[in-house]
Specification:
Elements (H helix, E strand, L loop, with lengths): L1 H20 L12 H60 L25 E6 L4 E7 L6 E13 L2 E8 L9 H4 L3 E4 L2 E7 L2 E14 L2 E10 L8 E3 L1
Parallel strand pairs: 2-9, 3-8
Antiparallel strand pairs: 1-2, 3-4, 3-9, 4-5, 6-7, 7-8
Length: about 230
């Protein structure tokens, strides 16, 4: 009996000893040394100093910009005051403006000469219409726009039959627009162009232009692609 109790006590002692050996380790951080503490404090001080320096620089920059803007506003205000003074001075001077009239020299037309513009209306009584003509003093001959030009003989003389070659915008007596016109051929002229030579008939028609009333020789050719159906040379 006594020996059994001894064995039980021995087993319990070993159990307690095993429990003491297997206790878990503590998770607390190791104690901070004095050197580490001082290093950490120095880092914090350095960071705070840098932040303070950045804030100070930003504030100084804002103050500098504000001073520049204030100076600009003052300068603009000064310019506006000067402009108001100049405007008031000009208004005071312009109350009684002086108008200077410059006389233009008017050239009187020479005797027995009629001044013509770049374009004129001409009448063709023998045809029974009027047409717009371009005046070109450099042209050697006058020209009338014609189409379907047909040469024929009458009483042994050369004649020509044609229609006026006009655009829809050309002004003309409507009854004459598609009428056949006949006239004797006075002569023929040779026209030299890049495409070759061309012989054109020349007719004489009575023409009126203001006080002018005389017979004018016209070469017949298609001018419908041009602005004026008549050219006065």
């Amino acid at each position: 009996m006594r020996s059994g109790v001894l064995w039980l006590m021995a087993g319990l002692s070993m159990s307690f000893a095993g429990c003491a050996v297997t206790q878990p380790e503590s998770n607390e951080p190791p104690p901070l040394s004095e050197a580490s503490f001082n290093t950490r404090i120095l880092e914090l001080e350095t960071s705070l100093a840098q932040q303070c320096d950045a804030s100070t620089a930003f504030i100084e920059q804002q103050l500098s910009q504000q001073q520049v803007l204030t100076a600009d506003v003052r300068e603009v205000g000064s310019l506006l005051r000067h402009l108001r003074q100049e405007v008031a001075s000009l208004e005071a001077r312009s109350e009684d403006p002086v108008i200077i009239r410059e006389e233009c020299r008017v050239e009187e037309p020479e005797d027995n000469k009629t001044l013509l513009g770049r374009s004129e209306w001409v009448g063709l009584p023998s045809i029974g219409t009027y047409l717009k003509a371009r005046v070109d003093s450099g042209a050697n001959t006058s020209s009338l726009s014609a189409s379907e030009i047909t040469r024929f003989e009458r009483d042994g003389e050369d004649w020509v039959r044609f229609k006026l070659a006009l655009n829809e915008d050309d002004v003309v007596v409507e009854q004459i627009r598609d009428e056949w016109i006949e006239a004797p051929i006075e002569r023929r002229v040779k026209i030299i162009q890049a495409s070759g030579e061309e012989s054109r008939p020349v007719i004489s028609l009575l023409m009126t232009l203001g006080p002018i009333r005389e017979n004018v020789e016209f070469t017949l050719n298609d001018r419908s692609h041009l602005d004026y159906p008549v050219l006065l040379g």
